[in-house]
Amino acid sequence: MESVSCSAAAVRTGDMESQRDLSLVPERLQRREQERQLEVERRKQKRQNQEAEKENSHFFAATFARERAAVEELLERAESVERLEEAASRLQGLQKLLNDSVFFLAAYDLRQGQQAVARLQAALDERRRELQPKKRFAFKTRRKDAASSTKVDAAPGIPPAVESIRDSPLPKKAEGDLGSSWVCGFSNLESQVLEKRASELHQRDVLLTELSNCTVKLYGNPNTLRLTRTHSCKLLCGPVSTSVFLEDCSDCVLAVACQQLRIHSTKDTRIFLQVTSRAIVEDCSGIQFAPYTWSYPEIDKDFESSGLDRSKNNWNDVDDFNWLARDMASPNWSILPEEERNIQWD
């Protein structure tokens, strides 16, 4: 009799466990279906981003080729100052197109574009010199006076075309071949304190790559900033007029102010941010955000020249391209706790 009761109890227990397992099936299937849908959406978003970048690249190539040809034609036929200024205006637009496209262009295409603009700028400077009115005849004594005054005003042997470049030379050891005179920065350095002043980087494109255990201070107003393959570095930067891009970085601390921030393949990095649009992270983990707090003399002037709205800061409004669930926070980025924001910048 006792064995029969035990058997009956065992049957009831088995039935209850089976019912419990069956009740879990819909929940598991629902969770699996949600995960599948999120993966589909993630792949769809990634594909759309790739297609958008491809379309942007095609648009850039066509527009750049057309505008470059127009500038070349203007320079060839420039017989007056007015036509020359038209060429200068078109060349400025070409430079802006290149600057706005820096974040989706391949490194080779970017370098080719920079070199093309540099050649056009040199040709423009040469045509300006050719169209300058020739000096009238003067006696020898007066020519000597003029020559002596010229030696005082400018260093001998340096043409006017390179006067602006001479003010901010590129250190060969630190910067290497960065592609053009308006790109500046540092590369392949370890355990150093690196600085650039406002006169060196005003409205230039800054490239920092393959740095380790360095502190980089950029005083002034760059046009763009790109940080790649950098480890355990501290970067302090004045207001950037357009975009900041991070890729393949780890264990860094940054203070940046910009119009747009995009972070790719980066981990364990703290960012003190002022951004007027929204930050974007992709394939990242351990990214922490806090408001921009770095300051230095003349920063107000640099913000004014950058065109950034200091009253608008979306430092905690972040899009994660790898996390599409709207009802749950992304695990890949977070807000840096206030007690951890006390950073010694100097």
UniProtKB/TrEMBL annotation:
Its main location: cytoplasm. InterPro entries: C-CAP_CF_C-like, CAP/MinC_C, CARP_motif, TBCC, TBCC_N, TBCC_N_sf, Tubulin-bd_cofactor_C_dom. Residues 171-323 form the C-CAP/cofactor C-like domain. One of its GO terms (cellular component) is cytosol. Residues 28-57 have a biased composition (Basic and acidic residues). GO terms for molecular function: tubulin binding. Keywords: Acetylation, Chaperone, Cytoplasm, Phosphoprotein. GO terms for biological process: post-chaperonin tubulin folding pathway; tubulin complex assembly. Gene3D superfamilies: 2.160.20.70, Tubulin Binding Cofactor C, N-terminal domain (1.20.58.1250). Residues 1-57, 143-170 are annotated as: Disordered. It is found in: Cytoplasm. Pfam families: TBCC, TBCC_N. PANTHER family: TUBULIN FOLDING COFACTOR C, TUBULIN-SPECIFIC CHAPERONE C. Belongs to the TBCC family. Supercomplex made of cofactors A to E. Cofactors A and D function by capturing and stabilizing tubulin in a quasi-native conformation. Cofactor E binds to the cofactor D-tubulin complex; interaction with cofactor C then causes the release of tubulin polypeptides that are committed to the native state. Tubulin-folding protein; involved in the final step of the tubulin folding pathway. This is Tubulin-specific chaperone C.
